[in-house]
């Protein structure tokens, strides 16, 4: 399937020992699933439950993906991870930097 998708329940020991307690600049809380880039402090999604981590195949940046705590998602964790992988590949194709966060919608149209 996707070699870049690594769905896991928790961060690895290496990542958890390096946690820093800095304030985020922005909090987002959409009803749809989101992807938040790891190791940045611009944005976070405190109202979301983490499904796992997706790694960009081109640059190896990692994104936590998850759904809203209260509102269920119409897409699965695997569908969200696949959609994000396409979005990240599109960023590279357009020579754009990755955003700090992405909202992932059901039936999101992206090109590969």
Question: What labels would you give this structure?
Answer:
112 residues, alpha+beta, two-stranded parallel sheet, 2 helices, 7 strands, globular, disordered N terminus
Give structural notes:
This protein has 112 residues and is of the alpha+beta class. It has a domain at 26-103. 19% of the residues lie in helices and 25% in strands. The chain is built from two helices and seven strands, in the order βαβββββαβ. The strands form two sheets. It has a five-stranded antiparallel β-sheet, with helices on one face. Strand 5 and strand 6 form a beta hairpin. It is globular, with a radius of gyration of 13 Å. Residues 1-16 have low confidence and may be disordered.
Q: What characteristic shape results from the CA principal axes?
A: globular
Low-confidence stretches: 1-16
Approximately what portion of the residues adopt beta-strand conformation? Answer: 25-35%
Biggest beta sheet attributes: 5 strands, antiparallel
H-E order: EHEEEEEHE
How many β-strands, per DSSP?
Answer: 7
Distance between the termini: 15 Å
Give a brief outline of the structure.
The protein is of the alpha+beta class. It has a domain at 26-103. It has helices at residues 13-16, 77-93, and strands at residues 5-6, 26-27, 34-37, 43-44, 48-55, 62-68, 101-103.
